[in-house]
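Lab notebook, bench 4. Still working through the backlog of constructs that have no structural model yet. Next entry is a single chain of 67 residues. Request: give me the structure tokens for it.
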Amino acid sequence: IKAAQARGDPDTGTTYYLHWLAAIERIVREKGLTDARTLARYRDAWDRAADRTPHGQPIELRPEDLA
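Model written out:
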């Protein structure tokens, strides 16, 4: 995160989350636990689930989110 900020990355409310997500995704790819395509599929599914979830409620993935 410090390196990204040194490159001029803005420090916004989502920046911290996005950097942690990128780091976790890199680790699971490097360990061979999954691939970039699967990670993108779940990231997109999570976005769809979050879009329909009212603020303050738990986000639940449904099978159709992964379609």
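Notes after review: The chain has a mean pLDDT of 90. The CA atoms of residues 1 and 23 lie 10 Å apart. Flag for follow-up if needed.
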